[in-house]
Amino acid sequence: MLGHYVNLFTDFGFKKIFGEESSKAHLISFLNTLLPKKHQIQDLTFIQNEYQGATVLDRKAIFDLNCVSDAGEHFIVELQKAKQNFFKDRSLFYATFPIQQQAKKGDDWNFKLAAIYTIGILDFVFDEDKNDPQHKDQVVHQVQLKNQHNQVFYDKLTFIYLTLPNFSKSENELETLQDKWFFLFRHLHRLQEQPEKLQERIFNSLFKQANIARFKPEERIAYESSLKYYRDLTNVVDTARNEGREEGREEGREEGREQGYQKARAEAEQRLQEMVLKMLQAGLPDSQVMAITQITADELAAIKEQQTCQA
Question: Quick one: which H or E segment has residue 56?
Answer without folding.
Answer: helix 56-59
